[in-house]
Amino acid sequence: MEKSTMAQSKGTVVLAYSGGLDTSCILVWLKEQGYDVIAYLANIGQKEDFEAARKKALALGAKKVYIEDISREFVEEFIWPAVQANALYEDRYLLGTALARPCIARRQVEIAQREGAQHIAHGATGKGNDQVRFELTCYALCPKIKVVAPWRLPEFYQRFPGRRELMDYAKKHGIPVPVTPQTPWSMDENLMHISYEAGILENPKNQAPPGLYTKTRDPATSPDTPDVLEIEFERGVPVKVTNIGDGATRSSALELFVYLNDIAGKHGVGRIDIVENRFVGMKSRGIYETPAGTILYHAHLDIEAFTMDREVRKIKQGLALKFSELVYNGFWHSPECEFLRHCIGRSQEPVVGTVHLSVFKGQVYILGRESPRSLYNEELVSMNVQGDYEPADATGFININSLRLKEYHRLQSKVTVKQDE
């Protein structure tokens, strides 16, 4: 009997495990298929009882459990480049999930290599972006790795067409099922944001029910006095936050980001409700809360405009657009995305200084800024001081620039006259 079990073994798989119903069922199912399962839980800033999840994974038959705190590297190596880029997907989405996936998958590959595992597995669905983000990272960092994606295998998804079948399977195999009723939408949380989608939110007309938001207070009931902050940047990255009200300061990357999450959350900053285009070709509705990310987006935009040359900034904006698209689509570990990060990083050398802002009732208000590298020349721009600028020169500047417009419209009127004849 022992021999036949050994013969059936398919080797070791490292499963990205969340402790929830889906990945718990996947863990047991992978064992049924003949895999040795190593469960890997990424602590990337979500609220989770990690010790309970460890015990659960071991009880379900995981050979080993890794709980890896990757919050700090998430901020420094993934969120900071996005802040430098002013990364926004389709003008609105700050990329909270898209930035976390390559960070989570990178550590998963490291564990697979350390353990000599030939396979990795995840619980991402077959319709979403996350499967692409996970797997492109895994293949880029370890080309020989084999991916097991149960939600794309007919023998798995035909057996579990809905939540009820998963619940039945869980009861049969002694998997603890959630005692709290399930929210009628799905959530994904990390340090940067939380997303809500599916269920009742699939109808894009349905408003988010009260009580959905978890990271931010309703701006209507948020404090009636603002928090005034100073955020100091070096090379386009925040290095210090000071609260003018109570003098609180934070200067390490992780603590600074957590602090801004608290302040923004308290004032209801960072909520968006959008319909976006998934990489796989369909539109989907998502609700997101990105508290600290929203403050930093506004603050960085301001200090960058103050310190960066106009033409460099135009090119950099184009790069940021491409960068956001690559990150959303899962190409963080591609040569083109690496190249863009390098270019954007190079553009940030002069982005140094302090932004003063107020956080209040769901909004971020910029109050002022200062920088030793500012390209703003008060004397040059002043209405009262002539400086090195000769107003009479503007006449020739306007004449030269109007030449093209005069010629274009002269021709247009000729064409119009001909047509009228």
Question: Can you describe this structure?
Answer:
Its EC number is 6.3.4.5. One of its GO terms (cellular component) is cytosol. Pathway: Nitrogen metabolism; urea cycle; (N(omega)-L-arginino)succinate from L-aspartate and L-citrulline: step 1/1; Amino-acid biosynthesis; L-arginine biosynthesis; L-arginine from L-ornithine and carbamoyl phosphate: step 2/3. It contains 14 helices and 14 strands. It is of the alpha/beta class. It has two domains: 12-182, Rossmann fold (3-Layer(aba) Sandwich); 187-308 and 350-370, Argininosuccinate synthetase, chain A, domain 2 (Alpha-Beta Complex). β8 (227-234) and β9 form a beta hairpin. The radius of gyration is 26 Å and the shape is globular.
Q: In a nutshell, what does this entry contain?
A:
It contains 14 helices and 14 strands.
SSE layout and pairing:
Layout: H1 2-8, E1 11-16, H2 21-32, E2 35-43, H3 50-59, E3 64-69, H4 71-85, H5 96-115, E4 119-121, H6 130-141, E5 146-148, H7 154-157, H8 163-172, E6 186-189, E7 194-197, E8 227-234, E9 237-243, E10 249-250, H9 253-266, E11 271-277, E12 283-289, H10 291-307, H11 310-329, H12 335-347, E13 353-360, E14 363-370, H13 378-381, H14 393-420
Parallel strand pairs: 1-2, 1-4, 2-3, 4-5
Antiparallel strand pairs: 6-7, 7-12, 8-9, 8-13, 9-10, 11-12, 13-14
Helix pairs in contact: 2-8, 4-5, 5-6, 9-10, 11-12
